[in-house]
Write the structure tokens for this entry.
Amino acid sequence: LKLLRNAQFVFDPNAPALADGLELGLRQFVLAGGRAQPGPLSGAGLQVESLASWLRRDPDFLASRLGALADTVRHRFAALNTAHLMDGAVVRATTAARAQVHLLITGPSLSHAAYPRLLVLVEEGADAVLVEEHVGALGFTCPVTEVYLARGASLNHIRIDRGGEAGIHLGLVAV
């Protein structure tokens, strides 16, 4: 936290943030600087979509889930992420599905901040693999991942941080 004491970061969701991820052979969904790139993924028991798009289409579905697990009182960086919430990704593995997805989250450029938000829903009987890869961060990355596992659901969540040496990565996973 000492690195953050005198640091100043600009939050510009349109700042360029490009980097290459690992080639994992999985379906890939990209968040650049916290914002979803065009095109939802669907099929084979998997649905991945921009959080902003889902909120516009079906806000009632997410109302009781988004922000319910990430305690913004106990976790100040979850509060910071929530204050900057503009977009992210919703990953949904449907009942009895075997779903696999690679979320590639490109980090902010030098002196910039990014606040990616992920909501993961694994329905009853579903078996999911989620690779959450953070790459290329030179600034401050503050992700929050909220995971809902239904009865009999299984999730193998792998989080990889391949940010730059100058980057600061401080995140929360709440299940």
Notes: Helices lie at 2-5, 51-57, 59-63, 76-83. The longest helix spans residues 76-83. The two ends are 24 Å apart (CA to CA). The chain has a mean pLDDT of 84.
